[in-house]
Amino acid sequence: MSGKEAIRTEAAPAPAHTFSQGVRKGPILQVSGQGPVDPVTNAYVHPGDVKAQTLRTLENIAAILEAGGASLNDVVMFRVYLTERAHFGEMNEAYGEFVSSRVTDGVLPSRTTVFTGLPREEMLVEIDALAVVD
Q: Counting beta carbons within 10 angstroms of the beta carbon of residue 3, is it exposed (0 to 12), middle (13 to 18) or buried (19 or more)?
């Protein structure tokens, strides 16, 4: 079995803590939880707008997937963390538009949504992904 590989790309925000953007071992690629951070400025963006934060977060995930040799077609599971139950509809709309437009094999990934506190007050959403690369 092959060793683990840290996935790193400048097209997504640098990790703020002691973890990799993603880790690949064989066909498995786990993307660390991403938030609404601009990869160029490393600043949190779209305060108060969960739809825009969801799209930015998914763009960050897509960049890490690509850096790891994967795409949204390879994602088997997303985990979405929201700070407010009231944001579910807007998050779900943005998520649906983004994922549906990029999954071309007709099989949408599984998903779990959890309502919780997040590390930064300005974060309304955080998402991670698990991909299996053929």
A: exposed
